[in-house]
Design brief:
Rossmann fold; five-stranded parallel sheet; 11 helices
Length: 403
C-alpha cells in the first residue's frame, strides 16, 4: 500500500510539473522604500504552555477512539513536499499517537474549491464521517453550509475565518502563528544578506500571506536596520514554473536571500540556481537546495489534530477558533543549515524565540505603512481577532514588484 502511495505521489508530481505554465514577464524594478522603524523592546519571557488536554468527559460524545471516523479533504496531494505533505504527515503522526486505524480515516486529494468540496462532503457523510477536515482556505464556505445541514458532524477547517461569526457549535477554524516562526527565520535572512535586499515569493497578496511576510521582514529588520524586501506575487499556492520565474527575477533585482509562501521547494531550488540563499516554508527544504536554504519555518499540524480528536472523543468543548503557537509547538523551525548560516544566528533566534514565547508580539509598534502613516504607535500591539491571519498592511521597507 505504501509503495502504491509513493508511486502515486511521484506520478502526481511529474504531472504537476509538466502542467505548470511559464511565459510570464519579470517583475518591474522597485521604487526606493522609506526607512524602516526600529522594533520596540520586548517583555521578559514566561514559561511556555501547551494545549489543554481533556480530562473526564463532560458529556457523552457518542465517540470512542476505536470507532471515530475522519474524512480529510486536501487541496492537493503530499507530492507537493510542502503544505499538503506536512498536513498529511502531521495527521499520520496523530493516527499513530492516538492508535487510529486506516479504516477510520479517509484522505481525499485534489479537492478544489467549488463542486469538488460539496461532492466530497456528501461522500464523507455517506461514509459515516464523524469529523470532516478541510485543509485549505477555499473549502470554508462549502464546509460552513454543510455544517448547518449536518449538525451531528464536526467540521474542522484550516486557515479560515468563518467559524466564529457563524455561531455554529460544530464548525471550527484552526491555524498557527506562522508570523512568529517567520520572524525567527527572518533573523537568519537579515544576518545573511550581503546586498541588504531580501526577497519573498508570495502566493497571493491576501492577509494570510501578508501577515507571514511582514513577520519575516520584521525579523530581518530586528538584526539589520538597513534591510529592505522585494515581494513578487505568484497568483497560486502551487505553481512551480511561476515560483521559479519570480524567485529568479527577485535575485536579478538584487535580493540575495529569498523567502516564500509557496507549496513546493521550487523557490529554494531556483535560489540555489541563481547563486543566492533562501528561507523555505512548510517542510525542511534544505535537502532540496542544500547550497541555498538556511532554515524553514514549519507547521506541526499534528499538534492540533491530536488535541482536537482527543477533546471531541472525550466530550469536552473544542475551541471554535484555535491558534497554535511556538509554545505548543504547532509552529516551529526546521534544523539550521550550519554550513550556510552566519555565526551567532542560532543564538539570536533563540533569544527572540524566548521573547515571543514569553508573550511579546512581533507586531509591536511603532510600525508604519508605505506612505509613512503610523499603523501601530510605540508599544502598541496588534492582536489577531481570530485564528486566521488578518494583518493586511504593506509596511515601510517592503516593496511589491509587479509583472
Amino acid at each position: 500500500m505504501k509503495r502504491k502511495l509513493i508511486l502515486l505521489m511521484a506520478v502526481m508530481m511529474i504531472i504537476a510539473l509538466l502542467a505548470a505554465c511559464a511565459g510570464q514577464t519579470a517583475p518591474a524594478a522597485p521604487t526606493e522604500p522609506a526607512a524602516p522603524a526600529e522594533p520596540a523592546t520586548p517583555a521578559e519571557p514566561a514559561a511556555p504552555t501547551e494545549p489543554t488536554e481533556p480530562t473526564a468527559p463532560a458529556a457523552d460524545s457518542g465517540l470512542t477512539m476505536d470507532s471515530v471516523r475522519i474524512w480529510y479533504m486536501h487541496g492537493g496531494d503530499p507530492s507537493d513536499q510542502g503544505f499538503v505533505f506536512r498536513q498529511y504527515t502531521g495527521f499520520e503522526n496523530t493516527m499513530a499517537e492516538l492508535g487510529l486505524s486506516d479504516n477510520q480515516v479517509m484522505h481525499a486529494f485534489h479537492i478544489r474549491p467549488g463542486d469538488d468540496v460539496d461532492t466530497s462532503i456528501l461522500e464523507a457523510v455517506e461514509w459515516g464521517a464523524d469529523i470532516i477536515i478541510g485543509g485549505t482556505i477555499g473549502h470554508g464556505p462549502h464546509m460552513l453550509e454543510a455544517a448547518e445541514a449536518h449538525p451531528d458532524v464536526v467540521f474542522l477547517h484550516a486557515t479560515g475565518n468563518l467559524a466564529l461569526p457563524s455561531g455554529l457549535p460544530n464548525f471550527h477554524n484552526f491555524f498557527g502563528d506562522m508570523a512568529s516562526a517567520r520572524y525567527l527565520s527572518g533573523i537568519a535572512a537579515g544576518l545573511k544578506t550581503e546586498t541588504n535586499v531580501i526577497g519573498f515569493v508570495a502566493a497571493f497578496l491576501n492577509s494570510e500571506v501578508i501577515t507571514g511576510f511582514t513577520g519575516f521582514y520584521l525579523g530581518a529588520l530586528s538584526v539589520n536596520p538597513d534591510v529592505t524586501m522585494l515581494v513578487g506575487e505568484i497568483g497560486s499556492f502551487n505553481d512551480p514554473a511561476r515560483e521559479e520565474q519570480i524567485a529568479t527575477a527577485l535575485a536579478d533585482l538584487g535580493a540575495d536571500v529569498i523567502g516564500q509562501h509557496a507549496n513546493s521547494p521550487t523557490v529554494q531550488i531556483a535560489a540555489e540556481a541563481a547563486g543566492v540563499w533562501g528561507i523555505g516554508y512548510n517542510n525542511d527544504m534544505i535537502p532540496f537546495a542544500p547550497n541555498a536554504t538556511l532554515v524553514s519555518p514549519m507547521f506541526d499540524w499534528g499538534v492540533y489534530f491530536t488535541h482536537a480528536i482527543r477533546t471531541l472523543v472525550a466530550g469536552q468543548p473544542l475551541e471554535i477558533d484555535f491558534l497554535g503557537t511556538l509554545n505548543d509547538g504547532m509552529v516551529t523551525l526546521s534544523e539550521f543549515n550550519e554550513t550556510l548560516i552566519v555565526p551567532g544566528t542560532v543564538e539570536a533566534i533563540e533569544e527572540a524565540r524566548q521573547r515571543i514565547m514569553g508573550g511579546w508580539s512581533v507586531f509591536t509598534g511603532p510600525i508604519y505603512a508605505e506612505d509613512g502613516t503610523q499603523i501601530l504607535a510605540e508599544g502598541e500591539v496588534f492582536i489577531e481577532p481570530q485564528a486566521a491571519p488578518s494583518w493586511n498592511h504593506i509596511i515601510q521597507g517592503i516593496t511589491v514588484v509587479g509583472d
